[in-house]
Structure prediction request, 281 residues.
Amino acid sequence: MSHVEAGDITHPGLLWKWATDWRLGLTGLSNGLMQLMHPGLGAGVAEHSDFFTDPWNRINRSIGPIIASIRDDDTARAIKMFHKKITGTDAHGNKYHALDPEIFWWAHITLYRSVELAARRFSHVGLSDAERESMYAEGVVWYHRYGVSDRSVPADRRAYSEKFREICTNTLEMTPAAERAVDMALNGRVEGMLEQLPRWAADPIERSVTPIAKITTLGGLPGVVRQRFGIPWSVTDDLEYRSLILAARTGSLFMPEPMRRNPMRKLAEASKIPAGAGASV
Prediction:
């Protein structure tokens, strides 16, 4: 496993490099949807989160600390503490707890997949096999920062890929939370994403982002997930998604690195949570 110095969120790792790239925004929604498809995790969001009443604000509040936790132990442990009281019963009558290793690992690995997918799919160079192994190893270091049992963590990337496919094929389901999220992707409109702007300025931007949100949410899903649950995906959708990939790859070639990464880096730095901040949650 590659070694990453604890607490240093400026350390130049492959995972950190792509977690702070703007293209992460093109992969996060699809992996968030897969979180909601896990029975325990979907129930936890439905019962304990304000995601469906204020989705964009919820995402905006979460993304900074999540990225910061890649390099900062205190932030990672605080995130763990925030989840201590998230427990209940899912739609099948099974008890769940957010810190159950299988549930927490699925939440973590879908976040990890967002980062890897940004590099693999939206970069013109992609990732070599060695880079995939290295990034996965950094993802395991990231998971260890939370202090949750690692009994559910696959030892290497091959084992992770096998477990990921097995969960997509046999465990995920169209939970009530996932069903609502799919409906939002298909029929909803991005609203509230730019609350800092006056409505007259935010409205046209959010209207233009809506089709991108739809195509990246559904296009980022593994094919087996779309097929299992009958999620619509037409030839036109596929062409639009491929066009978006090409545009992101090409556009980033002409975008200076500070413009690609500094906003996310600054957000992560500003979102670090000090030691003990989650203890009373």
